[in-house]
Structures are given as C-alpha cells and as structure tokens.
Amino acid sequence: MKLPSLNIANLKASFPLIQGGMSVRVSTSALAIPVANCGGIGVIGGSGIPPEELHEDIIKAKSATDGIIAVNIMYAMKDFYNLVMSSIDAGVDMIITGAGFSRDIFKIGKEHNTPIVMIVSSPTLAKLAEKLGASAVIVEAKEAGGHLGTDKPLREIFPLIRKVIKKIPLIAAGGITNGYEMAELMDTYGADGVQIASRFVLSEECDVADEYKQAFLNARQQDIVITTSPVGLPGRAINTDFVRKMNAGEDMSTKKCPHLCLKKCDHHYCINERLMLAKDGNVNEGLVFSGENTFKMNKILPVAEIFRRFKKQAESVYKEGIGFNPLSS
C-alpha cells in the first residue's frame, strides 16, 4: 500500500521522510536538494556555521528545487537566534530544533509564518511543544547519532509520546536503516513519518570526505559508542582514535576556544574543530557522529536510489498507519 504524505502546517512532503540535519557541514544544500526533489524534506545542518554561510546555502537550495527545504539548528548554539532569523530571511520552509528547548522560537515562527518542528525524547517536552505551537514533533531515541536526549530505545518511548500528541504530526527518529523499519514505525507505532540521517551520509551527494564515508562503511557494531560532548549531552559516535583517547580519560581540552559557538561549553574539547576534522577526512583525530545501526549499511548510493529502495520496501509491507490525520483534527 502507498505511504501517505507527510503534512506539516501548510507543507506537504509526498514521501513521509525527513533527512536529518547533520552539522557541521555534513548536511548541506548538496544533500538537501536531491532529498527534496525526491519528495522528502531536505534539511541543512545549521549549527556551527556562520549565519551568512547558512543564509547563502539555503538560498542555493531554494533556487534549485521546488521541494521542501528545512534547517536544523541546535538551541545550544550561542548564535541560535541569529541563525534562525538568517534562515527565515533566506526563505527556509521549516525550522527544526533540539538540544535544548526554546519557548521564544514558537513566537518567531508564528510571526514569520515559518513552521517550527521540535526534537524531543520525552512525553513532557512533546506535550509542551504542541501546547506552545509546534507544527510537528520528532521523537529521537537512543539509536540516533550525535547528541542524545535519552538512553531509551525508540520503540519504548515512541508509544508514550504518541499517547499525548494528537493534533500535530509525530515523526520517529533513531536507528532506522530501511523501508521495512519505516513501515513498521508508521503502521504499528503510529508514526506519521520518519527522520533518517546516517543512511544519507552514505549517499553520493553527501558533501563529506571519502574517508568519512569509509569510516561508516568500516564500522562494526562494537565500533559505535557513547561519548561526551561540550554541549552537555552524551553523543553517539564511531570509536575513532580521538574518541578512544577521550573515553580513556586523556586530556583533549583546548586552552583557548577558537569558535565560541556554544552558549555553555565545558571546553574538554572543541566540538566544532573535531567535527570539521572528520568532515574534511581526518577521521582519526575527528569526531564522527553515527547512528547505532550504521554497521548494517554497506553501500554508498545516490539519494534517488535510497528513496527508491525505502519506498519499495515500505510499501511492500505497509497496511494502514494510525498516525495523525489532518482531516480529523
């Protein structure tokens, strides 16, 4: 059975898939454009880059596709509001945010007619986001890559949040690697769509060094670990030399912060610097965020082929989801 579209505010994605917004410079317009062209929601990672660069990349994406272009901006960023306003000024379709909770972002979204989508990991925050005006909620569980708001698996926390969110779409995120899992989460758990990040690192269009993608291809299950982050949250990453040393207690701190990117930073290492090292190919000294199930993926594919496979797999088993119906709200 054909999967339903994902309707968020006045936006309609013909295929209910959001591509995760991976920072720093992992999810750029180069990736977001083909995702949007395939009917999903293409997301630019807006954290850790100058507002001017983000503005330019959004304009580039919007000029190249008629699909939906969103931006993901962590609330933990010091220039959060500048990044938000720069995105709105560039004409972004949607703002996705997490790693902290902003009440003001909903007022800004309403004022500028820009849908706000909140990433949460608990029923309490999900309910609050809906009350304050979120256009959709993304439930992100422990299986996700990058910063984590919970140590609970997706299939444990999603039903709890599904019970309290009735008026807006609810999207499942964390560890989803194929269309069968997508259909399961929509059909059995009532998700209105899914967000997927790690699978898109292993796309031809993802703008990272070949060494970064090879680290994903080489990763075994035991190579994907939990580590710490200056953001103040645990993070899931590949166990590179840098991560091994840090988890063993070696001092990786910087005497002077070169970026001053976070509102609160414990300075035990520079996350922006380490993410950029990895993105540019120095994975041994860099930080390579990765989903828990990256080890299950073994091919680099074009974005269009990833969508084709997800669609074929999902629609071969999907029956009828129990998610949000905009006609009944």
Overview features:
disordered C terminus, 329 residues, 2 domains, 3-stranded antiparallel β-sheet, TIM Barrel, flavoprotein, NMO, single chain, alpha/beta, 8-stranded parallel β-sheet, Aldolase_TIM, 13 strands, oxidoreductase, NAD(P)H-dependent flavin oxidoreductase YrpB, nitropropane dioxygenase family
Question: What does the model show?
Answer:
The chain has helices spanning 29-37, 51-64, 80-89, 104-111, 123-132, 154-162, 179-187, 198-201, 210-218, 241-247, 271-279, 303-317, and strands spanning 6-8, 11-13, 17-19, 41-45, 68-74, 94-98, 116-120, 136-140, 146-147, 170-173, 193-196, 224-227, 235-238. By secondary structure, it is of the alpha/beta class. It has 2 domains: 6-206 and 298-317, TIM Barrel (Alpha-Beta Barrel); 210-294, no CATH class. The strands form 3 sheets. It has an 8-stranded parallel β-sheet with strand order 3-11-10-8-7-6-5-4. It has a 3-stranded antiparallel β-sheet with strand order 9-13-12, covered by helices on one side. The chain has a two-stranded antiparallel sheet with strand order 1-2. Helix 5 packs across helix 6.
| End-to-end CA span | 24 Å
Structural class: alpha/beta
Biggest sheet details: 8 strands, parallel
CATH superfamily of the largest domain: Aldolase class I
Write the layout of secondary structure elements.
Layout: E1 6-8, E2 11-13, E3 17-19, H1 29-37, E4 41-45, H2 51-64, E5 68-74, H3 80-89, E6 94-98, H4 104-111, E7 116-120, H5 123-132, E8 136-140, E9 146-147, H6 154-162, E10 170-173, H7 179-187, E11 193-196, H8 198-201, H9 210-218, E12 224-227, E13 235-238, H10 241-247, H11 271-279, H12 303-317
Parallel strand pairs: 3-11, 4-5, 5-6, 6-7, 7-8, 8-10, 10-11
Antiparallel strand pairs: 1-2, 9-13, 12-13
Helix pairs in contact: 1-2, 2-3, 5-6, 7-12
